[in-house]
Amino acid sequence: MTPILSGFSDILHPMVLLWIIAGVAIGYLVGALPGLGKATAVAIAIPLTFALPALPAIAFLIGIAKGSAAGSAVSAILLNVPGEPSSAPTALDGYPLARQGKAGKALKAALFASVLGDLGATLALVVLAQPIASYALAITPVEICAVLVFSLTFVAGLSAQSLAKGLVAALLGLLAATVGLEIESGLPRLTFGDYRLFDGIPLIPMAIGMLAVAEMILQAGNRAALDQQAATIAKGADPDDSRMTRDDWGRAAPAIARGTAIGIGVGILPGLGASVGSFLSYGLARSRSKEPGRFGNGAIEGVAASESADNAVVPASLIPLFALGIPGSVIAAILIGAFMLHGVTPGPMMFAQQPRLVGGIYAAMMAASLALLLIGLLFQRVFAQVVRVPTRRVVPVVLILCVIGAWVEGGGAFGVQVMLAFAVLGVLFVKLGFSVVNFLIGFVVGRAFELTLRQSIQILERDPANLLAHPIALIFLAMTALAVWRFTRGASRKPEHPEEI
Amino acid sequence: MRATETLSGLALVLFAIVMLLWVIPAQIPSGFSGQLSPRLLPQITMWAVLALGLWIAAQAVLSSRIAAHRPGPFMRAEVLALVTLPALVLLALWVLRLAGPLVAGALLVVGAALMMGERNPLALILLPAGALGAGWLLLYRILGTTVG
């Protein structure tokens, strides 16, 4: 408890508070822009933290992640264009509400659900991360390797068009992670004689390229449609249309509670991501409703269910990051780079080596939840205007931010070249149905996977029968086989495109 | 659509074969005796990609679920953007060496705005001024870092 109290005293410094508020505000603003998700926002903002100490830098980035997770509901509700995929279920009921002149009500429901989901998951992080970390110190590379195999397989099955494509993306990410000097022998691999690749492919330019620049390219290719959508926002006259009534709270509260629990569960499992959480929560709210016919036509509980789960995933995905050093989501994967940039190595040792910083991060996350509520309430109307900014004016500004970020983090022109190469790859991935998220998760866990694989082969003395001495690893490998069977079976039953159902 | 799936599967197969037969042997030493080879993980991933590429291609050919006549995944405007936007960034990088970050930054912002269809002269002045001014203020004045 002492580190958290110390953390609260650390974040009460005006500069730290300012960076938290700035992070949440920027995140909310960026999240409201269609296509610019929280991962993109954090990737772009990392270079802005270079000159900051660790706590305000990390608090700023987490603030952006939280703010953009909540902000993505704005464009989903007002334009029917989700700021990111995880807000897609929000649009199902939020947009009909906006068309009925209840945009204010829908935006407030989304905001309150976001704040409550986020705060609940932050408390879960505080309570669960350290116990899991204590246990994590006792597990061997064999178990970690099995967990990683399961995570990559499970993520591959959930987040791509097909299990095969999801696995291909993750495998290519693993391959990209092998570029550079090999861990054990120090021999160069796949560097083509270029010394700049000896340290491996830089993560931040890669992430900026695959997420942000690829999205800019796709938006540039669809600019007419995106601009056209920025003009159909209705505004109601009844004051109740702009606020949450008692009846609305009665409908939304159970959905928020369930959504938060689902978001925490999904966030803890490495790699599932916010989309899984928000869709599961929306589906559960609909299945438990006495009036399922209201869903899709402006059910306030649909908005609440989706947003609470979406926002709960962000802090919950930091639980495996803090406890095991495994990123629970692409945002956590990008945050690893930011953490290491500021001298913090996520994982179980973090609690022993930097308890005060961990306490500060927890305190900053709780403060960010409060900042999210205040910023959302104060500036919701103003932020909503951002979605009216035409894409032709958004893309140039975001593009130069991306170039600056890649230049600074990637060591000059090389970083920009890496960014462009992976932007092209990102566009190909998106258009051909291969998951960019899987690739990035594969890349980020690649080094840990290779290390634990090598250690496991040595620990098991190259005899698979020795796995019997590692029951936890066996359970995860069995779960991997089950996941492959389940996803392959599911794929053979479902049509290629949902609209064909 | 079926052709795209088949081609992407076959492209993966070709990529994996090239990696396994030429690139990995040429670019990764076999390692030291007594240690696991540095080629281990790259070879595992490429064998798996080879198998999955064949699976994707076979699924596309055999499965009736994939519509044969669905339009391809790329629109003309997207292909154009895929070429022009990276080309603009590379051009700005080249100009950076010749004329410095201010001119290169302005070229990037104005070029991207023009590519996106912005024709308002005021916007074409304010966009680079605002973006570069804000970037300069934040990076050089507030954070004390530099670019270039």
Detailed description of the structure:
The complex is a heterodimer of chains A (501) and B (148). By secondary structure, chain A is mostly helical. Chain A has helices at residues 2-11, 14-31, 38-45, 54-79, 88-99, 103-136, 141-159, 163-177, 203-221, 223-228, 246-268, 274-288, 300-316, 318-324, 330-341, 349-353, 355-386, 391-409, 413-432, 436-459, 471-493; strands at 180-181, 188-189. A two-stranded antiparallel sheet of chain A has the order 1-2. In chain A, β1 (180-181) and β2 (188-189) form a beta hairpin. In chain B, α1 (2-27) runs antiparallel to α2, α3 packs antiparallel against α4 (101-115) and α4 packs across α5. Chain B starts with a helix and ends in a 6-residue tail after the last helix. At the A-B interface, α8, β2, α9, α18 and α19 of A face α1, α2, α3, α4 and α5 of B. Chain B: This is Tripartite tricarboxylate transporter TctB family protein.
Q: What is the element string of chain A, with H for helices and E for strands? A: HHHHHHHHEEHHHHHHHHHHHHH
Chain-averaged pLDDT of chain A = 80
Number of helices of chain A: 21
Roughly how many Å apart are the termini of chain B?
44 Å
Give helix and strand order of chain B, one letter per element, not per position. Answer: HHHHH
Average pLDDT reading of chain B: 86
* Uncertain segments of chain B: none
Oligomerization: heterodimer
Count of the domains of chain B? 2
Shape of chain B: flat
Radius of gyration of chain A: 22 Å
Query: Strand sequence of the main sheet of chain A, in spatial order?
Result: 1-2
The shape of chain A, in one word, is: globular
Give a quick account of the main beta sheet of chain B: strands, pairing sense, barrel closure.
none
Question: How far from one another are the termini of chain A?
Answer: 52 Å
Structural class of chain B: mainly alpha
Main pleated sheet of chain A? 2 strands, antiparallel
The percentage helix of chain A is over 70%
Strand percentage of chain A lies at under 5%
